[in-house]
Amino acid sequence: MRTKARLYAAVLGLSTAGAFILSTGGASSHGYTDLPISRQKLCANGTVTGCGDIQYEPQSVEGPKGFPAAGPADGQICNGGISRFAQLSSPATPSGGAWPTTKLTGGQTYTFRWQFTAMHATTDFSYYVTKQGWNQNHPLARSDLNTTPFLTVPYNGQRPPATLTHSGTLPTGLSGHHVIVAVWTIADTGNAFYACSDVTF
Known about the structure:
single chain; three-stranded antiparallel beta sheet; alpha+beta; Coagulation Factor XIII, Chain A, domain 1; about 30% strand
């Protein structure tokens, strides 16, 4: 009887440890932008409240890669197609206000920054921006975007450090409120990470 009890305890311990490893491993393998500050980071730092799960894991907006030809569906780009992060794709914050914006100047050099909780082998980082006159009253769609990235940073399968910065020239001819979609494409999985930043040119 004692042997069976010990065996049961050992199996239970192993399964619990396995579940812990799986859950922590899944939660640790991600990243997000904080320059310009992304919607998920605004939720995580408490600037925007009522965001739901994303406030606890801003690094987890992971969806299919291949954007814009593939990737998250229109209306779900900012949440990577993950329904529990749907607040990120709303044109307004959960409280009904406007998403806070970062002020930028077109044509100037800007330093983008990513924060990582795991360092995946990386294909590249790409940045897209909304068109002048885009429809701000619905969740972001490809028709709202210039689908040619204004900046692409190849990474050739390397793994980034915990914090990565790179610089590029901001697009010209834009004014007012826009959204920059940053895409981190992973080299050795079928996924990419998405971050939407609201900016004012």
